[in-house]
């Protein structure tokens, strides 16, 4: 397999059911990834080690998924110069608004691109778009994907028009 370009880190294995949508999106664009469960709160040395060495391992984008306090993506962004995408995981408290605000409300100088609560598929697509700046083969797949999205909407409209 190719060297991973994207690291996908979740704060808990309970996040996997959501995160796998991100992995499916990355696979759609043939992007190799590394997946880890690392808690910003329970093993902070591990997240520091992983994030601080990601670039030298060939990682170009890091995706962090977390719920509740959801510090993981922000901690990663504070350690690495690489772009970080946060996936807020829905919780029983406020439907995930707590996770969303924990990720999106970063201090100046430490940005985290944040997708919707449970928006793992979009995190994978956003990572692909970021990588498509550098990799023409990913850019070509992204263009084809956008055409496919358009064609799906056109087909749905045609079905509606037939009913009317």
Automatic annotation (TrEMBL):
Reactions listed under catalytic activity: 5-carboxyamino-1-(5-phospho-D-ribosyl)imidazole + H(+) = 5-amino-1-(5-phospho-D-ribosyl)imidazole-4-carboxylate
Domain PurE: 4-153
Keyword flag DNA damage: no
Single GO term (MF): 5-(carboxyamino)imidazole ribonucleotide mutase activity
Enzyme class, UniProt record, top EC level: isomerase
Entry keywords, A to Z: Isomerase, Lyase, Purine biosynthesis
Membrane-spanning intervals of the chain: none
SUPFAM superfamilies: N5-CAIR mutase (phosphoribosylaminoimidazole carboxylase, PurE)
Any single biological process term in GO: 'de novo' IMP biosynthetic process
Function of the molecule: Catalyzes the conversion of N5-carboxyaminoimidazole ribonucleotide (N5-CAIR) to 4-carboxy-5-aminoimidazole ribonucleotide (CAIR).
Family: Belongs to the AIR carboxylase family. Class I subfamily.
Protein known as: N5-carboxyaminoimidazole ribonucleotide mutase
């Amino acid at each position: 397999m190719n060297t991973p370009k994207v690291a996908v880190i979740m704060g808990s294995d309970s996040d996997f059911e959501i995160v796998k949508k991100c992995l499916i999106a990355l696979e759609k664009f043939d992007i190799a990834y590394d997946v880890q469960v690392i808690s910003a709160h329970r093993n902070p040395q591990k997240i520091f080690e992983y994030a601080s060495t990601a670039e030298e391992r060939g990682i170009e984008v890091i995706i962090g998924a977390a719920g509740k306090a959801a510090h993981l993506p922000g901690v990663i962004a504070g350690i690495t110069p690489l772009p970080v995408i946060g996936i807020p995981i829905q919780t029983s408290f406020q439907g995930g608004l707590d996770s969303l605000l924990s990720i999106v409300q970063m201090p100046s100088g430490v940005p985290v691109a944040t997708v919707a609560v449970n928006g793992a598929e979009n995190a994978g697509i956003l990572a692909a778009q970021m990588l498509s700046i550098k990799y023409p083969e990913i850019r070509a797949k992204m263009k084809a994907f956008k055409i496919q999205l358009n064609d799906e909407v056109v087909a749905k409209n045609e079905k509606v028009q037939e009913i009317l």
